[in-house]
């Protein structure tokens, strides 16, 4: 099961985190996110400790802070949503610099920002230390339904193909002097989207026929079988276990 070239989110390295089997990292990531989400929002210090734990993982993985911060920009829409919550939420209100804000909205904004940022950072670290092909093998090892693994595999394989097709269509439009400057150009863009869908559908049909002609019967062959030792599992689960201790203290205190 191959996924082609390395994705732009992946950062090649030879750190202990890179060397861990993919299914151990997937399990650790899922467990860590569950613990973070389960932490009470009032325990603000706990989220600071979670950030420190992720910083230690990034240090061990030799992932630069700049690399991580640039990829955290993907959560900007969620930040905008969180900023609006104190203004639109109901309940008790408090004045901050002369502006009336909802107390529940402030707590809700903090909850979204803290947990969302930690979740995105965890995902970025996973992607930075695990190739997409290894992620698929890890999902397969964790007994995810084979159909879902195949769908993810095809999406990864042909996502770049469809993106390249869209790029060629854009170049063709621009070579004919087209520039989308207003509402009157939306029709052209809608036709482009329709043409892209048809081309993608036709390409998928051709790929499926080619696979069937080569013996595809609904299941992809397993090329590599990944395994993990007890020591590797212990090393990978150190992060969620430490986070669980922090979460328990957060509820207790």
Counted by DSSP, the helix tally is 11
**What amount of the residues lies in strands?**
under 5%
What do the pLDDT scores average to? 87
Class computed from helices, strands and strand pairing: mainly alpha
Biggest sheet record = 2 strands, antiparallel
- In total, the number of strands is 2
What is the rounded distance between the termini?
Answer: 48 Å
Specify the helix fraction band.
55-70%
- The dominant shape is flat
Q: Strands of the largest sheet, in order across it?
A: 1-2
Order of helices and strands: HHHHHEEHHHHHH
**In terms of per-residue confidence, which ranges show pLDDT below 50 for 5 or more consecutive residues?**
none
How would you characterize this protein structure?
The protein has 253 residues and is mostly helical. It has a domain at 16-139 and 226-252. It is 70% helix and 3% strand. It is built from 11 helices and 2 strands. It has helices at residues 16-19, 22-38, 44-61, 65-71, 76-88, 103-129, 132-141, 146-175, 186-213, 230-236, 238-252; strands at 93-96, 99-102. It has a two-stranded antiparallel ribbon. A hairpin with a 2-residue loop joins strand 1 and strand 2 (99-102). Helix 2 packs antiparallel against helix 6 (103-129) and helix 3 packs antiparallel against helix 11 (238-252). It is flat. The N and C termini lie far apart (48 Å).
């Amino acid at each position: 099961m191959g996924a082609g070239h390395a994705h732009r989110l992946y950062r090649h390295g030879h750190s202990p985190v890179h060397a861990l089997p993919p299914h151990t990292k997937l399990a650790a990531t899922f467990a860590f996110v569950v613990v973070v989400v389960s932490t009470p929002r009032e325990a603000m210090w706990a989220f600071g400790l979670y950030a420190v734990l992720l910083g230690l993982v990034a240090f061990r993985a030799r992932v630069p802070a700049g690399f991580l911060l640039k990829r955290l920009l993907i959560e900007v829409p969620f930040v905008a949503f969180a900023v609006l919550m104190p203004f639109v939420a109901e309940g008790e209100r408090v004045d901050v610099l002369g502006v009336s804000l909802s107390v529940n909205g402030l707590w809700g904004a903090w909850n979204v920002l803290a947990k969302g940022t930690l979740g995105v950072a965890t995902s970025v670290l996973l992607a930075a230390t695990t190739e997409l092909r290894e992620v698929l093998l890890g999902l397969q090892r964790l007994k995810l339904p084979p159909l879902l693994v195949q769908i993810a595999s095809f999406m990864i394989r042909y996502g770049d193909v469809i993106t390249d097709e869209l790029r060629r269509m854009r170049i063709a439009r621009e070579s004919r002097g087209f520039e989308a400057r207003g509402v009157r150009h939306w029709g052209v863009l809608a036709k482009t989207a329709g043409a892209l869908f048809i081309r993608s559908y036709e390409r998928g049909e051709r790929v499926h026929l080619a696979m069937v002609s080569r013996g595809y019967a609904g299941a992809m062959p397993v090329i590599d079988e990944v395994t993990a030792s007890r020591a590797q599992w212990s090393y990978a689960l150190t992060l969620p276990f430490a986070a669980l201790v922090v979460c328990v203290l957060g509820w207790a205190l």
